[in-house]
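Incident log, structure service

09:12 report received: a user says their structure output differs between two submissions of the same chain.
09:20 pulled the input from the user's history:
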Amino acid sequence: MNLGQTHPLTRPRRPPLRRRSSRNFSRPEADDIRINNAIRVPRVVLVDEEGKRLGEFLTDDARQLARDRGLDLVEVAANANPPVCRIADYGKIKYERKRAKSESRRKTSQLKELKVRPKTDDHDLAVKIRLARKFLENGDKVKVRVWFRGREHAHHDIGADQCLRMAEGVQDVGKIESHPRMDGRNMIMVLAPI
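09:34 re-ran on a clean worker, output below:
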């Protein structure tokens, strides 16, 4: 066998597997904002802290101007050509975005449920009305559920009365969104804030 040939039963050697780099090359998220040295374009349109447009600047000059004022150069419109940057306090912008995000999450209306029975007494119904009033004042909808058992099914009119009494008790802060209707063994009515 010649030196340049391989044995017919042996396979040729495979190149070694390449390992992935240990460096993190993740792309910035959509709400990540580039500031100061992270802005790598040559020119930017600059807006000052009051919102006045100062014009087109070299990025280094804009950075220096922001540094002189004791603020950051923050990229606000990365897709524009050239990108729009603002001289502002980055910590303040970050705080306002976080606060607006949590505020929008908190503002979503929820559906709160109150359960009563046809035999629920006046005082207990007054407690439920007070709870419904609190929920409606907070901007939440209230689902009133009257739960029937056994022979109570013969008296759906009593359940409808319970629902309407609750609606009357909260008429200054809420209105009936869906009138009392039967759903299986329950009568359901939904109240919405005004």
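09:41 both user submissions now match this output. Likely a transient worker issue. Closing.
09:42 reviewer note: The chain has a mean pLDDT of 86. The two ends are 96 Å apart (CA to CA).
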